[in-house]
Amino acid sequence: MNKSNLHTTMQFKKIDDLFREHWLDVCRLLHKSYGSGPPEPEDVAQEAFSRFAQMNNPEKIHDPKAYILKIAINITLKSIGHLCKTREFITEQLLIDEEQVDTFCPERILQGEQSIEIIQKATKQLSSKQRDILMRARIKGQTYAQIAADTGWSIADICRQLNTAMYILEQVDRGSASNSSKLNRSSTSNPLVSRPT
């Protein structure tokens, strides 16, 4: 075994030891601080250890457990923020009153159709594996552990694939929002576009 392989093996063993020693503590702290989820403390702990393992020089971290806890807390807070925004959006959509329903016009219908097209376009850019993981995690509500048990994929791979899928969707969404604002600006400056009186 050469020096590089020996270093990698030793590094993997240290991370494996850290995982065995602290995983339960990280899960307990997350559960105590933020509840049982979503996001599930076990999934967050798994992702935090995975991110720690992907660092260039994890052996230089003075207190690995504290560092992993910090990663886990940041992941949890970010996920809770996404969930809150999603819930607010859904609540806003569900609270459309009768007056607003009466004001549905061709422009609103067109915007809805365009939103569906954007979602379809975005999901086409994902691999079949990413679509499957996205569907299981975000639509069916499965945890990383459940997805891993169903598919045989590693939890670290599931985490990476889901993060990549979410990034792709965000990029497509940003691009479409940018195009939409350009379209709105051009339509307001076009004298042929009818304006409400």
Structural summary, described in words:
There is one protein chain. By secondary structure, the chain is mostly helical. The chain is 78% helix and 0% strand. The protein is built from 8 helices and no strands. It has helices at residues 3-34, 41-53, 64-94, 98-102, 106-124, 128-139, 144-151, 155-188. Helix 1 packs across helix 3 (64-94). The longest helix has 34 residues, at 155-188.
Question: What secondary-structure arrangement, pairings included, does this model have?
Answer:
Layout: H1 3-34, H2 41-53, H3 64-94, H4 98-102, H5 106-124, H6 128-139, H7 144-151, H8 155-188
The biggest beta sheet reads: none
Number of helices: 8
Tell me roughly what share of residues is in helical segments.
over 70%
How many individual β-strands? 0
Rg from C-alpha positions? 23 Å
Q: Write down the secondary-structure element order.
A: HHHHHHHH
Instruction: State the secondary-structure class.
Output: mainly alpha
Q: What distance lies between the first and last C-alpha atoms, to the nearest angstrom?
A: 80 Å
Shape: elongated
Q: Quote the average pLDDT.
A: 75
β-sheet strand percentage? under 5%
The stretches of 5 or more residues where confidence is low (pLDDT under 50) are 186-197
Oligomer: single chain
List keywords for this structure.
197 residues, mainly alpha
Care to give the gist of this entry?
With 197 residues, the chain is mainly α. The protein has helices spanning 3-34, 41-53, 64-94, 98-102, 106-124, 128-139, 144-151, 155-188.
